[in-house]
Structure formats: C-alpha cells, structure tokens
C-alpha cells in the first residue's frame, strides 16, 4: 500500500489509530508539545491577528472562526478567552473534528463557550472569516519517494509474517517533477492536502486561511544534507525514524513543504499573502499583547507570559522551525497584516521556474 494509506491507518484508524484511539497526548507530560502547550499567549496573539483581519474586511457582523486539527480545544479556548472583551466576543467558532473522542475533549475544554462542530471541511457552509490551524498539515498522510539512477520511485509498504517492510516500487514516477538527486535521497509528498484546501476554498466566500506548522521551502527540503527526508515518529518525547514499528503507538510526521502548500492553495483559488517564521510573525503580531502588559504590575503571571513569548519566538526553541503562512480569498491585503510586516516577499514560493512538487 502507499505509505499515506499506512499512515492514515496508523494515526486515524477508529479503533487503533494513534490519534483516534485516545493514545495521543500533547503537552509536557505527553508525547510532544506544541506552541499551544507553551501557554495561552499563543492564542492571545492569534486573537489579536483575527481582530486585525476582521477590521481589514470592514468589520463584517457575520465573521466566523473555523479551526481544524484542534486536538483538545485548548487553542480555541485561549483565543475565545482573549476575544472576550472585544468586538469579536460573539464571533461564531466551528471546530472541524472527525474524531468523536476529540469532540468530547473539545466540548469539555470549551464548556463555557458557544461553539459548534462539523466532521470535515466539505460540511462547511459558505462563510466569511478565517480558517486556521496549528500543526494540522504536518499530520496529514504523506507518501515517501526515493531517488534511484536519476529518477524517483515510491516506497510502498508490504506486510508479511515478520511485520511491515518498505519496498521500492520498480515503476518510476513521471508525474512528480522533482529534480534528480543522488541514489537513496528521500523526500515526502502530501498528495491529498489539495483536497482539504479545495474544500475550504470552495466555501470561503471572503477571508483568510492561516496555517502554522513546522517545515520549510521545497528547495530547503531538497538540500544535500536532508537526504534522509524529514520523517519522524514521537512517543513520550522520544523520537525515532521507524514508522512501520508499533503503528498506532506513536505520532508519525514530516516537515511541511511550504512551497507545495503555497502552490496547492493557489491552485485552489487562494491568494498567497505572506510566509514567515514564527520569530518574525510573533515580533510583528505581539505588539497589542505587550501594550496590554505595560498597564500591569510586574507579577509572577506577567513574567510567565513573557517567558512563554520568549519560548515561542526564540530561534533555538520554536522561533525558526515553525512558520506561518497566510492566504486570502476575495480579501487581498493592501498592506501586510502585522504578523507578516517583517516577512520577506514570499512570491518566490510560487515561482514556476522552480519545479512544482505536488503530484
Ligand atoms: C500535531 S496535532 C496538533 C494539535 C493542536 N492543533 C496543537 O497545536 O496542539 C495534529 C492534529 O490534527 C488532527 N487532524 C489530522 N488530520 C485532520 C483532518 N483531516 N481534519 C481534522 N483534524 C485533523 C489530529 O487528529 C490532531 O489532533
């Protein structure tokens, strides 16, 4: 089978999948942590970006927030708490969540808020507002390609009495126009992310799609020192590179190819507004939060906020590995949103002189 199918079963099988079976645990005590587990600061900064987006759209009254891949609902809760005394206090928030046990967790976390759920983006009604996600795209199933004699072959998963193995397909992939790489070079591709982007774009009448995740550009992923690809498995903060061992017991992930994401989103009718690392994003977007702290005495809780902010934007922790990418639909921005004011021009992601990656 394609590795993407194996990964879909290992992570999302209703009985034994890592995410579907309630084994996944995010946070300090869990398998891995995300910007959300650092504290409510991340949600507070996103809330101020959402206010800015709402303002740029002309303050529409029917503005909606849609989160996909929200895990236990913590980020949605942090955002809604931060919006409580703002004009977006009544904005409707919808969680796109196919897994029943996660809907239950989200419902407990968000018990003080009025939110609703749908199982997939195709169930969305036409909306004006923002689709946002943190670490969703890295969790989407991907396939693995390996270079051999100047061509690319897919690694397929085979099962026998001894377990699962990778076998290199003898067919070459003519439909994946990647540049040649030395024998054994591996790269991951997400063939199915375009379906998700198309479903959201079809229903987004006016507004934005904001995705935050770890990853890099296509060219960076194909750099000589990344010949082994970026696949990694996580369980209890231990990392390994053996996805075929103990499926269902650990997370399987690979860096997001932001070039492929930008090209897929553009092909789905979205317009690229900006791409930058979390360090630059937070430096640009955290001004309202820092201003709000100026009025407060320096207490333990304000110091905690500053420490969280430092963890999120420090180049050696989460500042450079994580990236933010913003797309618009029928809402092109005359000047960048504050989170992208320090970003370099991101048009190079769409430059067709570089080979497209999506199959
Ligand atoms: C790495 S976790 C990130 C959780 C959370 N956003 C955070 O930052 O802490 C990835 C999440 O994406 C979810 N996910 C993966 N594919 C999805 C899909 N097609 N629709 C909705 N959620 C999905 C998984 O169930 C999991 O909760």
Distance between the termini: 17 Å
Oligomeric composition of the shown chains: single chain
Question: Helical element count?
Answer: 11
CATH class of the domain at 23-137 and 193-218 and 256-350, named Alpha Beta
Summed over residues and divided by their number, the pLDDT gives a mean of: 93
Low-confidence stretches: none
List its salient traits.
359 residues, 30% helix, binds S-adenosylmethionine, alpha/beta
Q: In words, what does this structure look like?
A:
The chain is an alpha/beta fold and 359 residues long. It has a domain at 23-137 and 193-218 and 256-350: Rossmann fold. Helices cover 30% and strands 26% of the residues. It is built from eleven helices and 15 strands. The strands form three sheets. Strands 1, 2, 3, 4, 9, 13, 14 and 15 form an eight-stranded mixed beta sheet that branches. A four-stranded antiparallel beta sheet has the order 7-6-5-8. A three-stranded antiparallel beta sheet has the order 11-10-12. Helix 2 packs across helix 3 and helix 5 packs across helix 7. The radius of gyration is 20 Å and the shape is globular. The protein starts with a helix and ends in a 30-residue tail after the last strand. The mean pLDDT is 93. It binds S-adenosylmethionine (SAM). The site of S-adenosylmethionine has 18 residues, from loops. S-adenosylmethionine is lined by residues 19, 26, 34, 36, 68-71, 75, 96-99, 134-136, 139-140.
